[in-house]
Amino acid sequence: MAAAAMAVAGLRQAPSHRLVRAAGALGGQPWLREGRAAVAAGWSRPEPGGEVQYCAELLRKRDYEGFLCSLLLPAESRTSAFALRAFNVELAQIKDSITQKTTGLMRMQFWRKAVEDIYCDNPPHQPVAVALWRAVKRHNLTKMWFTKIIDEREKNLDDRAYRNIQELETYAENTQSALLYLTLEMLGVRDIHADHAASHIGKAHGIVTCLRATPYHSARRKVVLPMDICMLHGVSQEDFIRGKQEKNVRDVIYDIASQAHIHLEHARSFRKKVPAKAYPAFYCTVALDAYLYNIRKVDFNIFHPSLQRRSTLLPLYLYIRSWKKTY
């Protein structure tokens, strides 16, 4: 795979105190357990009117980068973004919280039925579902994207390695890109160039997420990295499980990371054609750039401890990107 320059320019400006304060402002709140359906779906019910708080707190704990990005959206879209991202978290954590696929399929079915009910104006009494219903009503969100996300997450319950990079990109398109399409709709953007950028950024996001999860999966004797790239460099799944750091292992990571970088560069190649109103949907690129820069610094050693630490400067970098009005 062609070499790709992956350095990210240094950012050295003052932070937004508003963003930094907001990132830590949401405190915990006790939720009441309710019913068998709640247990099956893995949720708990908030106090009346607390759905937004519930979604924001879920994001802060489970998707901190998504939480920060949502804070930078316009006020009229922010609570809807919390709901959308919380929906994604609910689906994403199913895979890691089950021991049998049947249980995962039941939880996916709950959300499939929840989406159907949301579009019939009869959402289940579940905080994320209620918040999502309000978002759908407010922004007239496209049902197809929710269905694609559920379908792809359900297929991914099999927990097997991707056969090739294209299969990983398809998964990313139907999950991360779909989230971005919905975010664009929340911003009132329906533009072919914005959609094109969202497709590439979503694919980059999915690839980076796969890389970031590799140490976690390897510790549990699982490897999901594309098999075609592993075979190209003569690397086995056992090499990752044992945490090997030989050059051929790092070459696998380099090739996969380079593909993410190529998608980001492609999304930026036609930035001038993308409406500025769409830019806030793409602030997730800040975290992607940072990860690709950091993995390059450690010579593509996927197991380096520095890659597993949360960046304390992320709020600063996000603010600067929003101030520059770019992605």
Automatic annotation (TrEMBL):
InterPro entries: Isoprenoid_synthase_dom_sf, Squ/phyt_synthse. Its main location: mitochondrion. It comes from the Eukaryota. The keyword Transit peptide applies. One of its GO terms (cellular component) is mitochondrial inner membrane. It is found in: Mitochondrion inner membrane. GO terms for biological process: mitochondrial respiratory chain complex I assembly. Keywords: Membrane, Mitochondrion, Mitochondrion inner membrane, Transit peptide. Transmembrane segments: none annotated. The keyword Calcium does not apply. Pfam families: SQS_PSY. Belongs to the NDUFAF6 family. Involved in the assembly of mitochondrial NADH:ubiquinone oxidoreductase complex (complex I) at early stages. May play a role in the biogenesis of complex I subunit MT-ND1. This is NADH dehydrogenase (ubiquinone) complex I, assembly factor 6. It comes from Anas platyrhynchos platyrhynchos.
